[in-house]
Amino acid sequence: MKRLLIIIGKIIVKVLRLFRRNAGNLPGIVLWHLSGHKCCSIFRVDCPIIAVTGTNGKTSVTNCIAQLFEQSGKNIIINREGNNLDTGICSLLLRHCNMSGRVNADYLILETDESHVPVVYSQLKLDTLVVLNFFRDQLDRNGEMETLIQKINGFCKSFDGNLILNGDDPNTARLGRANPENKNVKYFHAEPYAFATDKIFEASEGRFCPFCGEPLVYDYYQYSHIGKFSCKKCGFGDYEPYITATDIDLEKPVFMADGHKYTPKLNSIYNIYNMTAVAAAAKLYSIEQSVTDKVISTYTVNNGRMETFMLGDRKTTLNLAKNPVGANMTLRVMNEMQGEKELLFVLNDNVADGLDVSWIWDINFSVFERVTRVVTSGTRAHDIAVRIKCSGYDASKIVVCPDLDEAVEELAKTSGRKFVIANYTAVQPTRGALNRYIAKHGGKQNENN
Amino acid sequence: MKTIKILHMYADMLDLYGDSGNMEILNYRCRMRGIECRIDKYSIDSEMPDFSSYDLIYIGGGADLEQQHISADLLKCRDGIVKAYNEGVFLFLICGGYQLMGRYYRDADGNEIPGLGLFDYFTIAPSSRKMRCIGNIVIRTMVTGETVDVVGFENHGGQTQEVKTPFGEVLYGNGNCSKSSAEGYFEKNVIATYLHGPLLSKNPEISDYMISYCINRGVTKSVELSVLDDRLEKDCRKVMLDRLLNK
Fold it and tell me: CB count, 10 Å around CB of A37?
């Protein structure tokens, strides 16, 4: 039966390729139905599997860990395009297995959607699970966050492989107690950076100890609910870190870990956390220090994460914000910048965004400084306009343009510095609209493109 | 003119789905009219407030875990809240806040969380956590004296039953129970609903109903609210009504 399913799957992949279609998800969906919803169980994988999950940073960390092994000369398989549900992983393995379903590689590095961790790894043996963070994101698809954490916690109860956890996020650190028998739990941690605060800055969750209900006490907050926390009653949060990022300086940017200096390209605190997770994986798999250095110092992204465009002579920074944490970080960067600027906010409510847009009310717009005009766009252009208006921003300076090309034209009409925030499904269409503007009126696309 | 005094309860714990935005909007709409609006916060560690000294008490929604923490504290406030309600203080309740004012909330594992019992309804969560009422919702309400189609977003497992006087009639979405016809609970000084969004962001008439109630409470000469420019809010609602109802 398994063999038959593999053959069917491979035929679908071939046919899709014949029509030059990307076989990213469809073969997996077909096999999901044919296999009684266990589409990953038909493969035989003998090599170690490393999975990366969490709300923010999955793609970055997965790619970096993959590079660690690739640059060490290993043969790896990775879901680079971010097809991270069971059906996407099934489609990926179909393209890399032989006719008996055997997958040949030294390592599998798989970005995995939070809600699919138990699904996929009850079918495939997992060597290491990296959990980055849990933020309020796409709540309506996953139900409430507590449900999501419970699901992964349930999986961790019987998991005895390596568990690399963000020790500064109580939502992920608690997974370390799921299986008291598991001796392979490893926490990564970061000392406070220059903008760490005593008080929480943004709306957040996880204020209480999940074990005894006491309010958690924080030495410092790095951003959102990420920081050095502990429970004074039961001691949750008192762990020995496996690896610690110290001497973080985002101006350079630079940080130290395990007595070694790293110089990443991206200068945000969440990138430091991501890179610390990468360093933890490198340590666990005894990757050569020179390889880890190279991976961490060269990693950059070109997918709407602090990407730069020139609209004519107007410098424009695009950043993805799929939740309040991301949006608040962008607003901080915007505010720390001198001079006047204009903002384009593109808000969609497609299925992958989560149909609910109320998260925009957790963005702290009252911090706006020297923002002279706001243009809004996307399928929920009006919602974000109302939200910004009610924060006290002058409504006459808000322009609503649901059509993206019109919105970019409107934004570029005036001179000066521009910022663009786009949520998940809005990022690629926004990049498209920015590039169309540049093709038509001149300017320069992101140099890394 | 008098100052409107609002007590926002458990703001630090029950603030899922941008529910705190409702306070920002009420405050904004008062400020635009030159009405003073003071919003105090009460949470688990705070001193017991004089509930009757407020014009409006607001409680938002939260995750199951947080509601359990709150229930015990809320029961301590019971007498004060009941007295305030009887004296005409407005109760504005979203989701978890709505459920906790009923008789009880039975969670997915069968644990019963006692409510204040201020109203007769009760809420039962289905045993499967997957069964939730999630999505955009449109309800038609007459609370302002005119027909208003209200748009919001619902996300609740709990099925609220034995509601005698609902907030509105469901035109799209689920309401108090899966595929039900009624949504929320209403009295002249109570709006209790599952609608997030936040509720007031696209429904300025509901904000003004509450502001008008508060400003006219205990005064002899009734005050008319000045008209605000709500074009953005109304366009915002129209986009959703067109999308959801005129398929």
Answer: 11
